[in-house]
Amino acid sequence: MKLYGIMVFHRETTVGGRVKIMKWTFDLSSFWLIHRVGAQDTMGSLGQLLVERNRVPSMSTLQDEGYLTHAFIRVDGLCGVCVTDAEYPKLTAHSMLATVLDDFTKKVDPTRWGLINGSEDCVYDGLREYLKNWQSPDNKTARLLPGGMDESDHFQAAIDESRIVFHHSLESLVEPGETVDDMFWRNPKSVPFGEAPIGDDGALGKPGRLPKPRPECADMLD
């Protein structure tokens, strides 16, 4: 199982409300070096699209090319997104996101959310620790918060897995009269992290398509 990245977005709760990135962190060491920037850009774009195209509040998971993108959208518009491999449990991912958003709210006052225009503007520093500790979702010792509590158990008990909207492909996010290419490239706010994704051969890849991780035996070559 692999957890590749965690992102925090904020979505205005009005119809068609703007979505902006608040904070992100990634572990892309399992990708070839040449693919990492493209993989991060694509993960960010997929996460933002999932937040934009699901209701407030909601829980959703998008499956695409062997990856899962999970979005937990709260009633106040704060959104947690993570990208995992297909083996990572959906319920665990959403429980982790609920825990992240609760911690974020405690450490970043909601009155300041409107002043944040990117990850550099946000002082929250908890994502990297969550990314490290949740690589093994069954390792509860690693997930203990200060004071010895694992609040994820509380959130997992409160989450009804049947309420997680499951999107089987990118095409399920496409609106009438739109193509996947349109969804990515005709809407600039859907590409918040950089340029086009990079394909397996180092060339520009298809919109929304993540490169494949490198084989584990290739670690010594990077």
UniProtKB/TrEMBL annotation:
The record, for InterPro entries, names: Longin-like_dom_sf, Longin_dom
A Gene Ontology term for the protein's cellular component: Golgi apparatus
Which keywords does this chain's UniProt record carry?
Lipoprotein, Membrane, Methylation, Palmitate, Prenylation
The record ties this protein, via SUPFAM superfamilies, to: SNARE-like
Q: Where along the chain is composition biased (Basic and acidic residues)?
A: 213-222
Could you tell me which residue ranges the Longin domain spans?
Answer: 8-113
Drop me one GO molecular function for this one: SNAP receptor activity
**Entries under Pfam families matching the protein:** Longin (PF13774)
Q: Point out the signal peptide segment.
A: none
Q: What is its main location?
A: membrane
**Matching CDD domains, A to Z?**
Longin
Report the membrane topology from the UniProt record.
Lipid-anchor
Protein localization: Endomembrane system
Q: Where is this region: Disordered?
A: 195-222
Provide a GO biological process annotation. Answer: endoplasmic reticulum to Golgi vesicle-mediated transport
Family named by the database record:
Belongs to the synaptobrevin family.
What is the designated name of this protein? Longin domain-containing protein
Q: Which organism is it from?
A: Steinernema hermaphroditum
